[in-house]
Design a protein that fits this description.
The protein is of the alpha+beta class. It is 21% helix and 26% strand.
Length: 479
């Protein structure tokens, strides 16, 4: 070897050997500046560093404590950090493997995970030609300094579960960010933040026209052999958001180890053709997500489909689906359903009343998850019905403080006799109780009763808090 070349080689080798081996830590994309961490929980933060490198981790809520973790042969590491009680304080988490990386402007409070299809996806600014009521006020008055933080997961799919790769980032809730964020989720956070004394983090993980199967993992669907799983090597799908597991794998799985307070769900339109299958899928999804987020009793609140004509306003496909949603809400624990009978739109599948929906979701959280008392989390819900002579007496839950309109006709009820032909019925509240009597002079022996049980039909029954009754149907003969 030429002496000059050899000398240069030795010099450069010496520099490389004597230089410090800096390697900046890289974290999964769900972790970042401006995020909210779930209070009183254990978060599992994972990332990569140089192979077999030592990483020192310091959380500012424990200023005198430095955690030590080691990267494996691939440089992968993970560390568990216990979070404090939620407060208005700002925190940071720093990682140091020779070159420091700090996440700043972190809040500790309650985090809510929001998923579903287009009605959850619909932003505060609305879709083109489909507005959100109150959007201008909400956007114009949004303040970045409020203790609300937002994360929107960009649409993505995968045939296999992914550990990372989510596109999106935590942001403060200023006007521009609020305009683009899920309206139902934001108005939920806005109301919650006004009432409870901790910061709120909201994760919007939704996709238009998605089916429930797409938001379920392979394990959640194990009991449904007739549901065909996607080929792991398949590159294209005719209906990506309707294909089992694809959205869960790419948009939900990377959140493993990120504790939350509870979950919001606004979905169902894509599953209306088969409500009975949905009734079986929903409990498995709920069980799966509670396992995924390590909470056996995780609060879960969902939105009943609003009135919409679908094929025809007097058809029953959406009515039958709402009945399944009603039954699910009564059968499952720590599950609440928002009634939307007064915010639907005959023409638009995306009703503009997202502020109402978000605030009603917040009512469920306040009562069920936070233990507030003094008000109802929902409107009247069918409880039982009996026939007395030619009149049906219907008892409602969540009407104990009173039903309305008490001194006027109630619209929306229908009854049928043995011929199964439903006729409009008269209805009135019995003596300031939570019981409504329903009758029709044309039906001498009623055997079925229902309320607003059509694709698009509105009624006026509410409780004393102005919350609308849920639509229902009931067969008096078979019960």
């Amino acid at each position: 070897m030429n002496r000059t070349i050899a000398t240069t080689f030795l010099f450069l080798t010496g520099l490389l050997l004597s230089a410090p081996a800096f390697s900046k830590v890289k974290l999964r994309t769900i972790w970042g500046n401006d995020m909210v961490l779930q209070q009183n929980s254990e978060v599992v933060i994972s990332g990569t560093t140089r192979s077999a490198s030592t990483v020192y981790v310091t959380a500012s809520w424990n200023p005198g404590k430095r955690e030590v973790v080691y990267g494996d042969w691939e440089g992968k590491f993970q560390i568990k950090l216990a979070t404090p009680k939620g407060s208005e304080k700002y925190y940071s988490i720093c990682f140091d493997d020779g070159e420091p990386l700090c996440l700043n402007n972190i809040l500790v409070g309650d985090v809510w995970f929001c998923s579903g299809q287009s009605n959850m996806e619909m932003p505060v600014k609305g879709f083109r030609g489909q507005p959100v009521t109150g959007s201008l006020e909400a956007i114009a008055t949004a303040k970045a300094e409020r203790r609300i933080r937002l994360f929107t997961v960009k649409n993505a799919w995968s045939t296999k579960p992914k550990a990372d790769g989510i596109e999106g980032q935590w942001t403060t809730a200023g006007p521009e960010a609020v305009a683009e964020f899920s309206a139902a989720a934001y108005f939920f956070a806005d109301k919650l933040n006004q009432v409870i004394d901790v910061p709120i983090g909201i994760i919007n993980c939704s996709w238009s026209m998605s089916k429930i199967e797409a938001w379920m993992s392979k394990e959640m669907l194990a009991g449904f052999p007739k549901i065909e799983m996607p080929n792991p090597n398949q590159k294209e799908f005719g209906w990506t958001a309707g294909t089992p597991t694809l959205l869960f794998n790419a948009m939900v799985q990377p959140w493993k180890g990120f504790p939350i307070k509870g979950m919001l769900w606004y979905q169902g339109e894509a599953n209306t053709p088969d409500p009975q299958l949905y009734k079986k899928l929903f409990p498995e999804m709920l069980k799966g997500y509670r396992g995924f987020f390590n909470q056996d009793k995780m609060p879960f609140y969902f939105v009943q489909l609003a009135p919409w004509k679908s094929e025809h306003k007097d058809s029953l496909d959406w009515a039958l689906f709402r009945q399944v949603q009603l039954e699910l809400s009564q059968e499952l624990q720590h599950v609440g359903m928002v009634h939307t009978g007064d915010v639907g739109d005959e023409i638009f599948i995306h009703p503009p009343g997202k502020k109402v929906v978000g605030e009603r979701l917040a009512l469920w959280a306040l009562v069920d998850a936070y233990g507030f008392k003094g008000f109802s989390p929902t409107g009247p819900v069918f409880q039982s019905a009996v026939v007395k002579d030619s009149t049906v007496e219907v008892t409602f839950k969540y009407g104990e403080a009173g039903l309305n309109p008490e001194n006027a006709g109630i619209e929306g009820f229908e009854i049928a006799g043995n011929d199964g032909y439903f006729l409009p019925a008269q209805a009135a509240i019995i003596n300031a109780t939570s019981v409504v009597k329903v009758w029709s002079d044309a039906v001498a022996a009623p055997v079925q009763v229902r309320y607003c049980f059509r694709n698009y039909k509105t009624g006026n029954l509410v409780n004393n808090f102005g919350l609308p009754a849920a639509p229902f149907t009931y067969n008096l003969k078979s019960n």
